[in-house]
Amino acid sequence: MKKENCIVAQSGGPTAAINASLAGVIDGVRKSGSFTRIYGSLHGITGVLENNMMDMSLMALSHFPMLNTLELTPAMYLGSCRYKLPDYTEDPAPYKQIFERFEEYGISAFFYIGGNDSMDTVLKLSNYAKSIQSDVKIIGVPKTIDNDLFATDHTPGFGSAAKYVASTVLEIAHDAYIYKIPAVIIIEIMGRDAGWLTASSALARTTYSQAPDLIYLPEVAFSKEQFLADVKDKLTKQKTVIVAVSEGIHDADGNYISSDSAVADKFGHAQLSGAGKALEYLVRDEIGVKVRSIELNVLQRCAGHIASRTDITESFSLGQAAVKYAAEGKTGIMAAIERISNDPYQWVIKSADVADIANEAKSVPVEWINEAGNDVTDEMIDYLRPLIIGEVSLQYKDGLPVYLPVDHLLH
């Protein structure tokens, strides 16, 4: 079969903007004229292995309004997976199966939208393609609310999650301020290795509220004793103390501050829970004031109703750029964002070698964390603020947002 078709898939954790990148890929295919058909692989690369794919060519032709609805639909329209490809030199079987499927469907380009582990798949597939002299182009499209991918200024999905976190912290502050009694509220925010999302809670601060009053990121070793001292000090000056903590905070020996033991997933990443609850118990036992912990959990990544327009626009553009790169013959690369300026906020898209990205994690610069390790600097705020700007305009029916149906994922 003549190779003139392409496949797109999504992988890893969902975001409020990953479908905008999918819509961008579909729109890019429509505009490029380089591909006859576009297929969607359900549940990441496993859909290719299991021949579980859907033809999305009609969606590309429809353009509006379906793509508009898709770009504002949260989570992953094509579903996800946590599948780790083996080293092809040790186990080439899945690679042979994948590239046989590419041949069967006449595939000349494969687009994978995801984070660190997804870029590992892009790297491995592109290396295998090179080893067998295949001309199938393998292109990565970034996403992750963790904002920890190298070679890109920030990642699609992060801006929307940051907007949700900051808005929620502001609303929690309003709720907390109604009482006169001393109280501590601990908000646990996603971030296993990198504290970008927790840092975004600082955007909640206003002229009348400095919440969160304390911010703790995994880039700095966490001391329970210093934490208690910080909280006690704040309580001498104000009745309510609001604390933002990353789920991945750990002590100087690398032990997670968690109420449960951390279990590793198949990629070797610790699955964490309970940092906020552990600190709640600590404050209750050692300080004795009213205390509550709040775990934002998956709400941070599925709040399509409060997505950042900047985030959606950039995500869509990156999907379009990925198609352009494939049409130009590029492979083994990821579409990335380069920031030109903060004010006015300006950015461009560039290509980056996926070998510099896969299996790495970009931490918050230590100079963007204050000396006490319990807050972020103005430089961090300047970096974050443009990413949450702008609101999306959703359609509503019976009082609820209208999203693209995902019944194809329900069986």
UniProtKB/TrEMBL annotation:
Keywords: Cytoplasm, Glycolysis, Kinase, Magnesium, Metal-binding, Transferase. GO terms for molecular function: 6-phosphofructokinase activity; diphosphate-fructose-6-phosphate 1-phosphotransferase activity; metal ion binding. Substrate binds at T144, I145, D146, M190, G191, R192, E247. It holds the Pfam family PFK. Residues 6-324 form the Phosphofructokinase domain. Non-allosteric. It is an enzyme of class 2 (transferase). Its cofactor is Mg(2+). The record marks D117 as: Important for catalytic activity and substrate specificity. It catalyses: beta-D-fructose 6-phosphate + diphosphate = beta-D-fructose 1,6-bisphosphate + phosphate + H(+). Mg(2+) binds at N116. GO terms for cellular component: cytoplasm. The record marks K143 as: Important for catalytic activity. GO terms for biological process: fructose 6-phosphate metabolic process. It is found in: Cytoplasm. The active site is at D146 (proton acceptor). Pathway: Carbohydrate degradation; glycolysis; D-glyceraldehyde 3-phosphate and glycerone phosphate from D-glucose: step 3/4. Diphosphate binds at G13. Homodimer. Catalyzes the phosphorylation of D-fructose 6-phosphate, the first committing step of glycolysis. Uses inorganic phosphate (PPi) as phosphoryl donor instead of ATP like common ATP-dependent phosphofructokinases (ATP-PFKs), which renders the reaction reversible, and can thus function both in glycolysis and gluconeogenesis. Consistently, PPi-PFK can replace the enzymes of both the forward (ATP-PFK) and reverse (fructose-bisphosphatase (FBPase)) reactions. Belongs to the phosphofructokinase type A (PFKA) family. PPi-dependent PFK group II subfamily. Clade 'B2' sub-subfamily. This is Pyrophosphate--fructose 6-phosphate 1-phosphotransferase. It comes from Coprococcus hominis (ex Liu et al. 2022). The lineage of its organism: Bacteria, Bacillati, Bacillota, Clostridia, Lachnospirales. The gene is pfp.
